[in-house]
Amino acid sequence: MRWSKLKQMAEGLLCESLKGRVHYQAIVHRKSHDQTSSFRMTFDGKEIGWASDIPYALELTRRSGDLRDERELNPFPWHLHWREWEQSEDYKAYHCAYEDTETAMIADEVFPAWAVRELLFDYVHMPFEEAIVHEHPFVRAISLLDKRFGKRRLAEIDSEQESGLYKKFALIRKQADLQA
């Protein structure tokens, strides 16, 4: 789906008090060798959410290297053929450290732009009841800005148990509803 259509659909789901105030922006870095991208969410012109592929990749590499060092994994055996390496226990341990790092980064709300765009696509196509209990913090957070998230439900939520992004979006929604 083209970005312009996805943006239109996502912004069409915003509640009345946030329409025209919250914007989703995707920036593709065309001069980079693999056309990495960035994603921004703004509220009244101020950035409230951000994701970028390059900083994400750098942080993932740094954190997974730290985790491999912490777990005292063997260094990469450059002398082995890739098929031998792929069947070794070291290979499985490397992948486990990488996956654990990705999980930790999602919990710390560090996302790549490509994943956020995929999540936004999924969000506009999923039933709302699934979105508010989704496993990914970004999807749960943007569901707070949705017109289907009623004022009574908003009053009942306890954002203290949630992530920083969820708290921030809950506060934005509550303040916008009060001003409306």
List the helices and strands and how they pair.
Layout: H1 3-12, E1 22-28, E2 37-43, E3 46-52, H2 53-70, H3 82-86, H4 89-107, H5 113-125, H6 128-131, H7 137-143, H8 151-156, H9 164-179
Antiparallel strand pairs: 1-2, 2-3
Can you describe this structure in just a few lines?
With 180 residues, this protein is mainly α. The chain is built from nine helices and three strands.
Q: Percentage of helical residues?
A: 40-55%
Mean pLDDT: 91
Low-confidence segments, ≥5 residues, pLDDT <50?
Answer: none
How many structural units, i.e. domains? 2
Q: Could you explain how this protein is built, in words?
A:
A three-stranded antiparallel beta sheet has the order 1-2-3. With 180 residues, it is mostly helical. Strand 1 and strand 2 (37-43) form a beta hairpin. It has nine helices and three strands; from the N terminus they run αβββαααααααα. It has two domains: 3-51 and 113-179, no CATH class; 54-107, no CATH class. The protein has helices spanning 3-12, 53-70, 82-86, 89-107, 113-125, 128-131, 137-143, 151-156, 164-179, and strands spanning 22-28, 37-43, 46-52.
